[in-house]
Design goal:
Layout lengths: L2 E5 L2 H12 L6 E3 L4 E3 L4 E3 L2 H9 L3 E2 L7 H8 L5 E5 L7 H4 L6 E5 L11 H8 L3 E8 L9 E8 L5 H25 L27 H9 L2 H14 L6 E2 L14 E9 L2 E9 L5 E2 L1
Parallel strand pairs: 1-2, 1-6, 2-5, 6-7
Antiparallel strand pairs: 3-4, 7-8, 8-9, 10-11, 11-12, 12-13
Helix pairs in contact: 1-2, 1-6, 5-8, 7-8
C-alpha cells in the first residue's frame, strides 16, 4: 500500500508513530513548515517532522497547498491514498482527487458530533462520558465525508493530553485494520447523519477565564461550579490555559495577579486546587 501522510502537531505524530510501528510507513510525509516557538522564538520542527527524522522518511513542508509546485511534487508518487491526521490546513479539492482512492482522515470525535478544530477540548467541556475516533473519506466540506469506521472510548476524567494520546493510538490501530479493507473494496463508506452534526470553535484566553467569585464558590461548596471549572482545567491545560484574577485572600492567592490554574481535582462536590502558576513565576503546588 502506497500512501502519503499529512499531519503536523502532536496528534499527527502519535498516529504516524503508531502506523510506522505497525509496518505501514508512508512514502512521504507532508507537514507545515518549521516555525519560531517560545519566548526566544527558536525555530522548531513540528512533532510530525521529528518522527520522520528518526525513521528516515522523506518530508515535504510547503507553505501553501494551493501552488502548482505542490501538485507536481505529490503527483510524482503513485499513491493509493493519503492519510490526514491534524494537518492544520484545508486540503484543496484538486489534491483530494489526486490519490486513486481519495484521502482518508482520522478525526478525534464520533462524527458527526464535534466537527472542526477542537473536538477533544469540546467533548471534555461538555462533560460527555464517551468520545471516540472516526475515519472518513475527505470531501470538500469540513469533517463531512462518509464514514469508513468508528471506535468509541470512555473519557474517565482524562485531561486533554491523556485523551489526545488515547484517541491517536486508537485511531491509528483502527486505521491499520480498516484501511486495507477499504482500499480493497471490502468496506463501503456510509454517509454521516448530517442533521446531527455539531461544530466546535477555536478557543481564546477569554474562553478560559474563570471569574474569581465562581472559583471561590467551587472551592467552598458549589458542586455545579466545581464540575464546570474542573472540566475547563482538563480541557484547556494544553492551551489556552485556565486563569483567574483573585479579588481577595480567601483562597490564599495573590490579589490582583493573573493566576493560571494548572491542575485540579474533585472531591465530594468540592474543587481542590492542585497546581497553579502566578504571573511571572514558575508553576507551583497550591
Amino acid at each position: 500500500m502506497n500512501y502519503i501522510f499529512f499531519g503536523t502537531p502532536r496528534f499527527g505524530a502519535l498516529v504516524l508513530k503508531k502506523l510506522i510501528s505497525a509496518g505501514m510507513p508512508p512514502l512521504l510525509v507532508v507537514c507545515n513548515p518549521d516555525k519560531p516557538v517560545g519566548r526566544k522564538q527558536i525555530v522548531t520542527a513540528p512533532p510530525v517532522k521529528r518522527i520522520t527524522e528518526i525513521h528516515d522518511i522523506p518530508v515535504y513542508q510547503p507553505k501553501t497547498l494551493k501552488s502548482e509546485e505542490v501538485i507536481q511534487e505529490l503527483s510524482r508518487h503513485n499513491i493509493d491514498t493519503a492519510v490526514v491526521a491534524a494537518y492544520g490546513k484545508i486540503i484543496p479539492d484538486n489534491l483530494l482527487r489526486l490519490p486513486k482512492h481519495g484521502m482518508v482522515n482520522i478525526h478525534p470525535s464520533l462524527l458527526p458530533k464535534y466537527r472542526g478544530a477542537t473536538p477533544i477540548q469540546s467533548v471534555i467541556l461538555e462533560g460527555d462520558s464517551v468520545t471516540g475516533v472516526t475515519i472518513i473519506v475527505l470531501d470538500k466540506e469540513l469533517d463531512h465525508g462518509p464514514i469508513i469506521a468508528q471506535r468509541t472510548v470512555t473519557i474517565d476524567g482524562r485531561g486533554y493530553e491523556e485523551l489526545e494520546q488515547l484517541l491517536a493510538e486508537e485511531g491509528a490501530e483502527l486505521l491499520v485494520t480498516t484501511l486495507p479493507r477499504y482500499l480493497s473494496g471490502d468496506i463501503q463508506p456510509k454517509p454521516q447523519e448530517h442533521a446531527d452534526a455539531t461544530m466546535t470553535k477555536k478557543f481564546t484566553a477569554e474562553d478560559a477565564y474563570v471569574p474569581y467569585d465562581d472559583l471561590r464558590a467551587a472551592v467552598t461548596g458549589d458542586a455545579a461550579a466545581a464540575s464546570r471549572i474542573d472540566r475547563m482545567v482538563r480541557a484547556f491545560t494544553h492551551e489556552p490555559g485556565v486563569w483567574t484574577e483573585p479579588a481577595d485572600t480567601t483562597l490564599n492567592l495573590p490579589v490582583g495577579k493573573r493566576v493560571k490554574i494548572l491542575e485540579t481535582r474533585l472531591e465530594e462536590g468540592l474543587l481542590h486546587l492542585v497546581r497553579i502558576q502566578v504571573a511571572g513565576k514558575k508553576p507551583q503546588l497550591y
